[in-house]
Amino acid sequence: MRNFTSVEQSIDDAAHRYLDRPGVGRMRGRLTEFVVFGLKQAWACVFGAALLAVIIAARLWYPDNAALARNDFLTIAAVVIQVLMISFKLETLRELRVILLFHVVGTVMELFKTDVGSWAYEAEGVLRIGAVPLFSGFMYAAVGSYMVRVFRLFDLRFDRYPRRWVTAVVAGAIYVNFFSHHYIFDARWVLLAAVVLVYGRCVMHFRVFRRRFRMPILVSFLLVALFIWFAENIGTWSRAWLYPNQLDGWQAVSIDKLLAWFLLMIISVVLVAWVYKPEPLGAVETAEVPRLRRVAP
To answer: Is the pTM of this model over 0.85?
Structure first.
C-alpha cells in the first residue's frame, strides 16, 4: 500500500540516494531510518500543524477590531488549507472522505458539549452553528487526516486485529457515552476495560523505510492521545476554546482529558479501518521484524 504523494516519494527517494552511497555503515543506516521516521510523522501531521499554526498566529497577531471575526478567519483559513492539500495532491480524495466523516462526527459532539457547558467558544462571527464555530470540526478532521496518512505512510499491518464489527460496537458505545454520561452512569472506565480486552493482543507492524518495527497497538493509541493532549493545551492557551476552569485565566488542561482522547482514538481507528481494511503481516516478512522498544507517535 505504498501510494505515495509527490512529497512522500521525495522523502523516500532522498533516503534511498543517501543509503546507496558507498561507505554508509550500519549506524548511519539506523540514523537514516530515524530521520525518515521523523519526517514522515511530521508530514502526517501537516494538516493539524498548519491549522494549529494559524490558531496560534491568530491569538498573537489577529487584530481585535478586525471587520472579519477571528473565528470566521479561522474557518476560512481551515477551508483554504484543505483546498490546497487536495489541489496540490498532498491528500487523496479517498482520504478526504474519511476526513469529512471525522468533521461531521466531531461537529455533532461539539454542538452537544457546548450546549451542556463542557467547554465554550467566543460568541463571535457568522460562520457557526449555534455556539460552535465551523473551524472546530476541522480540529477533528486534523486527527482524521493524521490517522489516514499514517496508515498509508507506514504501510501498517496487524497481528490479531479484532473483528471490525466488534471494534465498531465498542466505538459506538464510546461515542454514546460522550453524550450519555451527563445524564446517567459514566461508563468510561468500563469502556477502557473493553478497549484493553478487545485490542490487548493486537500488535501493529509499521515500515519506516527499509525495515519494519512492531509495537502493541494500545501503546500507539496512548502515544497519539498524549500528543493530542499537548495540542489541546496549545489550543486552549490561544483561546480557540476554553474549559470552565480556564475562563478566569489559562491553566493546563487536566490530565484526566487524556482518557477522553484515548477513547476518542478508538472511534478514529474504527472510522479509518472501514476505509483501509487492517491487513495482517505476511508470513515471509514476519521473521524480519525487529522489536521496537520505544517510538513516538
So the answer is: no
| Confidence check: pLDDT of 289 > 60 | no
What is the per-residue pLDDT for 134?
A: 92
Helices 135-153 and 70-87, packing angle to 10 deg = 30
Distance in angstroms (rounded) separating the CA atoms of residues 72 and 43: 27
Query: Which CB contacts under 8 angstroms, 24+ apart, belong to 285-294?
Result: 285/157, 285/205, 285/212, 288/211, 288/212, 289/205, 289/212, 289/213, 289/214, 290/211, 290/212, 290/213, 290/214, 291/213, 291/214, 292/213, 292/214, 292/215
pLDDT at 153: 84
In sequence order, the β-bridge partners of residue 280 are: 158
Residues 6+ apart with CB under 8 A from 130: 111, 114, 115
- The alpha-helical segments, DSSP class H, found in 154-256 are 164-180, 188-199, 217-237
- On whether the CB atoms of residues 295 and 224 are closer than 8 A, the answer is no
Q: Which value, to the nearest 10 degrees, does the dihedral of the CA atoms of residues 248, 180, 147, 90 take?
A: -70
Confidence at residue 284, expressed as pLDDT on a 0 to 100 scale? 42
Query: How many Å is the Cα radius of gyration of the chain?
Result: 20
CB-CB contact of 206 with 37 (8 Å):
no
CA dihedral (158, 164, 166, 170) positive or negative: positive
Three-state SS at 157: strand
Going by C-alpha positions, the residue among 230, 109, 96 that lies closest to residue 181 is 109
- Specify the residue for cell string 489541489: 87
CA dist., res. 74 & res. 51, Å (int): 8
Do residues 44 and 155 touch, judged by C-beta distance below 8 A? no
What distance in Å separates the CA atoms of residue 110 and residue 252, rounded to the nearest whole number? 20
**In a 3-state reduction of DSSP, which class is residue 132?**
strand
